[in-house]
Amino acid sequence: MSDTNAMPDWEKRFRAPRVSLPEWAEDAPDRALFVSNATGTYELYAWDRATGAQRQVTDRPNGTTDGVLTPDGEAVWWFSDTDGDEFGVWMRQPFGGGEDVPAVPGLEPSYPAGLAIGRDARSTAVVGRSTDEDGSTIHLVRDGGAPAVVYRHRESAGVGDLSRDGTLLAIEHTEHGDAMHSALRVLRLGGGPGEPLALETVAELDDTRGGEEELGLAVMGFSPVEGDTRLLIGHQRRGRWEPMVWDVADGSQTELPIELPGDVSAEWYPDGSGLLIAHSFEARSELWRYDLAAGTLARVDTPAGTVSGATARPDGTVEYLWSSAAVPPQVRSTTGQVVLDAPGMKAPGSVPVEDVWVDGPGGRVHALVQRPEGEGPFPTVFEIHGGPTWHDSDAFAAGPAAWVDHGYAVVRVNYRGSTGYGREWTDALKHRVGLIELEDIGAVREWAVSSGLADPRRIVLSGGSWGGYLTLLGLGTQPDAWSLGLAAVPVADYVTAYHDEMEGLKAMDRTLLGGTPEEVPERFAASSPLTYVEAVTAPVYISAGVNDPRCPIRQVDNYVDRLVAREHPHEVYRYDAGHGSLVVEERIKQVRLELDFAARYLPA
């Protein structure tokens, strides 16, 4: 590592050690698991909170972030893929260290589709899997025996949760064919020791109604109380996500009178007496406690900004990961203490965001703006988020901060398709995929120019994943609007991407576009950047992971070949990882390449 005193702030933000919110073992709350980049690669760490001892669990060239503690705190399960391709198996390692062994011998590699580990005496575990050959399968393991299939379907599905006694399994599924809106099924896992497995469907819940009124459901977790058959779920019956308590034994549904304006998610307090409410509204979030007996809400004090994760501890305190656009992430507690802080260099802050609301063709569009020092108009980067079912928030992000450091204004747009603004806003992108989002982004671009923020000769369209896809699509469908394009891990050729991508994303694309490329070729053509590549006038920079299962490399190469045939100015950077990198040096390199490309190709 170079001298930190001479290092620019943008690079310090990437190098500074970070930690995730620690997840603790349900029956051993002093044992926790977190992710950190302390070694320069994001890896899993075990933490004995009673002694303060911390130990690195995984050590792989391309990093590891997917892991869970067993409820008794005795072991760590972590997902082992190959160089970021997301295709692999679950491994098991003792909490105190030791040999890594396959957690479920007999299961072939797959894409993960959920995991639940029981707190019962039979050592129950439920593993969700997805493959191109089998679709979605869910396997049950008991007493260390061979895995048994408890669910199988061609459409996408996943593990929801396992009851405390290990007898009830909640599954999220999309057998109806709409991958954006799941239905729920609860199975009873019968059969005693030495007896064959007996399966019984004890409850079903499906809010999909066909047409434009299909609503989604999500599993938030079984009650932590022994013998309690209540399942906390999320629903969209009032046009947004909010929690409901469903007793799967008697079928009763208790909708909660939580009158907050945005999306609401929840988890149980450990004693089952209340719910920790996470409320997301207009790019900020906050926490509340809902008392189930009294039916009342009490605010959990957190600073203004974004809570990226929170958990209620057995003593009733709440720990949460917080940041704002100006302040780097911190793991805090309602006790007022910092729970976990990585030693070493601290990340410099950045500038706060400004909220902008722009009238768009589908309603008011919310954008977040960061300005550099000085007077505008500025060279401006439109940093487009991925997902698409995601949203930008008032949270710390090293990438946008790097552009601000270099004198650029940064604009982030929560276009139609983004979460956090109601179900209708999220679902609006179906069947006009990509094009409807770009209408909103275009409306914000017009505001940025007319307000004096952006120099119209120097506006960059940029993004990763779905944001990279919208970048390439925008360069082709709005060629006069953009001076430069920076697309990371993008969809570039939608038809080839569909055929090469992981099975779960194929289901999502069928939902978004209304069928396969063979069934609705005109929709895939209309939404594919490759269709418009001849119209691109701006220089194009593309970065792509050669092992990416979400935006595979072949379809990127097809797009690049067309640029080459045109002798169009472009650069391509391919790196040995999947859908992004967990290696700090690699992330820094990619930002540096983008900054350099913009400096060379934007007008002075």
Write the layout of secondary structure elements.
Elements lengths: L8 H7 L7 E3 L2 E9 L6 E6 L5 E3 L10 E3 L5 E6 L8 E6 L6 E2 L8 E7 L7 E7 L3 E7 L6 E6 L3 E6 L5 E6 L9 E8 L7 E8 L11 E6 L7 E6 L6 E6 L5 E3 L7 E6 L5 E8 L2 E8 L4 E5 L5 E7 L5 E6 L6 E4 L4 E3 L13 E7 L2 E8 L7 E7 L13 H8 L3 E6 L8 H5 L7 H16 L3 E11 L1 H12 L6 E5 L5 H7 L2 H11 L7 H7 L12 E6 L7 H14 L3 E6 L8 H18 L3
Parallel strand pairs: 31-32, 31-33, 33-34, 34-35, 35-36
Antiparallel strand pairs: 1-2, 2-3, 3-4, 5-6, 6-7, 7-8, 9-10, 10-11, 11-12, 13-14, 14-15, 15-16, 17-18, 18-19, 19-20, 21-22, 22-23, 23-24, 25-26, 26-27, 27-28, 29-30, 30-32
Helix pairs in contact: 1-2
Write structural notes for this entry:
17% of the residues lie in helices and 36% in strands. It has an eight-stranded mixed beta sheet, with helices on both faces. Strands 1-2-3-4 form a four-stranded antiparallel beta sheet, with no helix packed on it. A four-stranded antiparallel beta sheet has the order 5-6-7-8, with no helix packed on it. With 604 residues, the protein is an alpha+beta fold. The mean pLDDT is 96. The protein contains ten helices and 36 strands.
Index terms:
36 strands; four-stranded antiparallel sheet; 604 residues; 10 helices; alpha+beta
- Share of residues in strands: 35-45%
Radius of gyration: 24 Å
Please list the strands of the largest sheet in the order they lie side by side. 29-30-32-31-33-34-35-36
Overall morphology: globular
* Unreliable stretches covering 5 or more consecutive residues: none
Q: In which range does the helix fraction lie?
A: 10-25%
Separation of the first and last Cα atoms: 32 Å
Q: What's the pLDDT, averaged over the residues?
A: 96
Structural class label: alpha+beta
Largest sheet: 8 strands, mixed
Please report the number of helical segments. Answer: 10
Number of strands: 36
